[in-house]
Each structure stands twice: as structure tokens, then as C-alpha cells.
Specification:
Length: 325
């Protein structure tokens, strides 16, 4: 599949999810759709065989029965992880969204875990990326290989929002999530353990079991006692994250998964560093406010503005915090 047809097929994939588009485009869309469907790659991979130490050509044939277009997407982005023995199968889609689709995968046996969550970013994310400029301020940008972006050409491309610049932004957005997951997991925060990154995708610990993925906290009924304990735990995480230079910046009960009394804070591509982003305190205060609002229904009374200031003062060095407070 060459680059142009691949782009075309990704276009279709995008359109496929937009019923409105489907109706509007009519015949022209159908023609393109047929073209894209006939170009689904076969899923051949050269899988490394640990016994013979050779790459063996084999088929990657995931169990999850997706539409043809989605299947092509899965083969392209998750195939390399099958090849490299991270995943053994793709079992089902956990959730599809505008920015990313998350799949539950069977982990390769050598990893010693049963499942892996694969968050596959939609390649056109850069077109739907809301106002990401606020989040990017002062941020060190990484490319797909996790190398720091320094070049003048790159910076100019980003400023001008050329196609190349948008690709860079897209990769940097993903890399930002992975970098924060690595740092926060190492610091002991309740985030999914990161496993690998590449091909538009982040592999991480899966929360849930064979029958269902962990629900988001906002859909769970808690007892008052449990709510109190979870509130404390979320706030401990918020503080720990801040101490490790991270403000989530989109924290709410929608981005906290709950499973059997355990939680994971997810969805960090927009996270910012409190020392470099001038709006970090506002974002932090918004995070704390959303958490307090959610727990309010369980009779937990907190003053989010005061709480945010206290935690910030305790953890962000004064010389820099004075600038923002
Ligand atoms: N590690 C995981 N384990 C189980 N489910 C997950 C995991 N990560 C994400 N999900 C599911 O996928 C959904 C989307 O993931 P998220 O990172 O929040 O992306 P976004 O909200 O930007 O689409 C989550 O709401 C959750 O239901
Ligand atoms: Mg989310």
C-alpha cells in the first residue's frame, strides 16, 4: 500500500465513523469505500521465532471481527506488535472515540500477563486536536522515536502548521502520554503500566477481565465509605503526580478506571509540566475541582480552590509557583 492510498483509506476510515458524512457524500464516497476495501493488507508478518532465532512469515489474523476498514487499521498498527511478540491476538474493541480507539489484546505468553490495552491513535487526530496550543506551551517535544525535537525546520513546520508540522505534533502528543506514563508509573502513581509505544499506538496494562473492561469511575455506584477512601486515593495521586512534574489537565471521573476497589488514572496526552506551562496552575485547579465535584454526591465536602492551592504550595517550588499563583 503506498502512501497516497494509505491516506485515502484512512480518510475513508474517518468517514466511516461519521454517518452524516456517509449520507452527504453518497456515490462518490461509496466508490472510494470500495477502493479502500479492496486494498486491505493481507496481514503477513515476519514473526521472530525464539527457538530457531529466525523471522518466520506468518499471518496475523485477529479474532476481533471488525469492519474491513477497521481490520485494515488493526493489521497496520497492531501487526508490528504481534510480530514483536507483545500481543498474541486482538480480542475486542474496548472503546472507540474521536482521538483514539482502545482494544483489548491477548498478551504474548512471555510477558506473563493475560491482557494488554492497545490505545491506537486515530491518524487524523491532528485535525481534531482541539486547542492544544495551551498544553504545548514550554513543552519539550518528542518525535516518534522519543528523541527530543530541536531542529529549526521542525519548529517552523509546527508554527506554520504545515502537514509535516502536524505529523510532528501528532507524534509529540502520543509521546507525551507515553513519557508521563513511564515517569508516573515509576513514581508509584496509579496509572496503567506502560508496555510499548510505536505505530501510532501505546500498549499498556489492561484494567478489567476477560468478560469486560474496567468501567469509568463516573458509572460506578460506591458506598460512602469507599467513596471517602477513593477520594483520598485520587488526591494522593494528584499530589504525587504534581511532585513528579505532572498536571493531568483533563482529570475527571471519566478518566479514572475502577476495578474491584482498584483505580487507574488514564488518558494523559495533554498532561503538562507545572514548571514550564504558564497555565499549569489553572489546569491543576480545574482537575482538583472536577474530582471534588464528582465526590460531592457522596457527601464529601471539600474546597477545591483552597485544596489546589495547598497542594500546589506544598509541591511546586516557590520561585516558580509565585509566577502562577
Ligand atoms: N488501560 C486500560 N484498560 C482498560 N480500558 C482502558 C484502558 N485505557 C483506556 N481504556 C478505555 O478506553 C477509553 C478511552 O481511553 P482514553 O485514554 O480515555 O482515550 P480518549 O478518552 O482520549 O478516547 C477509556 O474511557 C476506557 O474505557
Ligand atoms: Mg478519556
Amino acid at each position: 500500500m503506498n502512501f497516497t492510498t494509505r491516506e485515502a483509506y484512512l480518510d475513508e476510515l474517518d468517514d466511516e465513523l461519521t454517518a452524516h458524512h456517509l449520507r452527504r457524500k453518497g456515490k462518490r464516497f461509496k466508490k472510494k469505500l470500495v477502493r479502500a476495501q479492496t486494498e486491505v493488507p493481507p496481514g503477513k508478518v515476519a514473526r521472530f521465532d525464539p527457538v530457531t532465532q529466525l523471522g518466520v512469515e506468518t499471518e496475523f489474523n485477529p479474532t476481533f471481527s471488525a469492519s474491513k476498514l477497521e481490520r485494515a487499521w488493526i493489521l497496520e498498527y497492531l501487526g508490528p506488535f504481534y510480530e514483536d511478540h507483545y500481543i498474541a491476538d486482538v480480542l475486542r474493541q474496548v472503546k472507540g472515540g474521536k482521538e483514539a480507539t482502545v482494544y483489548c489484546c491477548q498478551a504474548d505468553e512471555h510477558l506473563g500477563i493475560e491482557f494488554i490495552a492497545a490505545k491506537v491513535y486515530r491518524p487524523k487526530i491532528f485535525r481534531t486536536l482541539k486547542n492544544d496550543a495551551d498544553y504545548r506551551q514550554g513543552r519539550v517535544m518528542y518525535d516518534e522515536e522519543n528523541q527530543v525535537l530541536r531542529g529549526r525546520r521542525e519548529k517552523l513546520a509546527i508554527r506554520k502548521r504545515s502537514e509535516y508540522g502536524q505529523h510532528l505534533l501528532h507524534d509529540a502528543w502520543l509521546a507525551n502520554e507515553y513519557q508521563f506514563l513511564l515517569a508516573l508509573h515509576a513514581a508509584g502513581a496509579d496509572v496503567p503500566k506502560p508496555i510499548a509505544q510505536g505505530n501510532n499506538t501505546i500498549l499498556m496494562e489492561y484494567l478489567g477481565d476477560a468478560t469486560m473492561p474496567a468501567p469509568m469511575l463516573n458509572t460506578v455506584e460506591l458506598s460512602r465509605d469507599e467513596a471517602r477512601a477513593l477520594f483520598d486515593r485520587v488526591m494522593r495521586n494528584v499530589e504525587l503526580m504534581l511532585r513528579h512534574n505532572c498536571v493531568h489537565a483533563d482529570l475527571s471521573a471519566f478518566n479514572i478506571l475502577y476495578w474491584d476497589g482498584d483505580i487507574r488514572i488514564i488518558d494523559l496526552p495533554q498532561a503538562v509540566n507545572p514548571y514550564v506551562n504558564p497555565k499549569a496552575f489553572q489546569m491543576f485547579e480545574r482537575d482538583v475541582t472536577r474530582v471534588c465535584q464528582y465526590f460531592h454526591r457522596y457527601g464529601i465536602d471539600a474546597n477545591p480552590r483552597q485544596l489546589a492551592r495547598e497542594i500546589w504550595r506544598r509541591n511546586v517550588r516557590r520561585d516558580s509557583s509565585e509566577v502562577f499563583l
